[in-house]
Write a structure and sequence with these properties.
This protein is α/β, with parallel strands linked by helices. The protein is built from eleven helices and eight strands. It has a single domain, classed as Alpha-Beta Barrel (TIM Barrel). Helix 1 crosses helix 11. The chain is globular. It binds 1,3-dihydroxyacetonephosphate.
Length: about 250
């Protein structure tokens, strides 16, 4: 059985105090999370340390939203994978469409970030997904294939075994426009097929999350699909009750 992972990407939201409160709110409702669902939160760097500390003993795992492409040195404003890992943080989101779009992240940068993440035992949550015009032009399979081949295909089988993938269609992020469960299933199965071309049967164990306007109202339908193994949740992860309710989509 594949793992199920529901992760909250807080993006550039919450002050440190609000972040710790949000973590505590989620922790207070962890008994309502269906068995076998791993819960992850990804706060901003400023309170990664405080949230990681507050998460100890709650069963909630912590992720960074990004890491530097280099190990250390004169890179003003950057945060290294080693710094992140030293806080007890287990995951790092890499290649989010907002970072590709606003900060120019390319496959070349992401390959370097992957190296840093694995060197420090962080589990990457690698994001892929097409823009609206790419879907409308019928290019979504090609776009996602390239994003997978150019980065994931460079991993060793041992590294690949730990990888989490998040399919996030750019047109569904923060727009209230969710992919239908059939659209999600179609492309998740496609991604798994591409992974299998390189890694064989191991692709059956890869967690592929869906992200993009997932919320308590649509999570059960999305998670009912065989290749949708969880969610990467933005807006709906900023309220403890909503985040828990999304995870409960796995009960239905
Ligand atoms: P929303 O859930 O706010 O659409 O964001 C999705 C996302 O980008 C998670 O990484």
């Amino acid at each position: 059985m594949r793992k199920k992972i529901v992760a909250g990407n807080w993006k550039m939201n919450t002050t440190p105090a609000e972040g710790v409160e949000l973590l505590k709110g989620i922790a207070a409702q962890m008994s309502e999370v269906p068995q076998g669902v791993t819960m992850v939160v990804a706060p901003p760097f400023t309170h990664l340390s405080m949230v990681a500390e507050a998460a100890k003993g709650t069963g909630i795992h912590v992720s960074a939203q990004n890491c530097a492409a280099e190990a250390k040195g004169a890179y003003t404003g950057e945060v290294s994978a080693q710094m992140i890992a030293s806080l007890g943080v287990e995951y790092v989101i890499l290649g989010h469409s907002e970072r590709r779009q606003y900060y120019g992240e390319t496959s070349e940068t992401l390959n370097k970030k992957m190296v840093q993440a694995y060197a420090n035992n962080l589990i990457p949550i690698y994001c892929v997904g097409e823009k609206l015009e790419e879907r409308e032009a019928g290019k979504h399979f090609d776009v996602v294939r390239s994003q997978v081949e150019e980065v994931v295909f460079n991993l060793t089988p041992e590294q690949f075994a730990k990888l989490v993938i998040a399919y996030e269609p750019v047109w569904a992020i923060g727009t209230g426009k969710t992919a239908t469960s059939d659209q999600a299933q179609e492309i998740h199965a496609f991604i798994r097929g591409v992974l299998a071309e390189k890694f064989g049967a191991a692709a059956q164990d890869t967690v592929i999350q869906y992200g993009g306007s997932a919320n308590p109202g649509n999570a059960a339908e999305l998670f009912s699909k065989p290749d949708v193994d969880g969610g990467l949740i933005g807006g709906a992860s900023l309220k403890a009750g909503d985040f828990i309710a999304v995870a409960q989509g796995f009960k239905a």
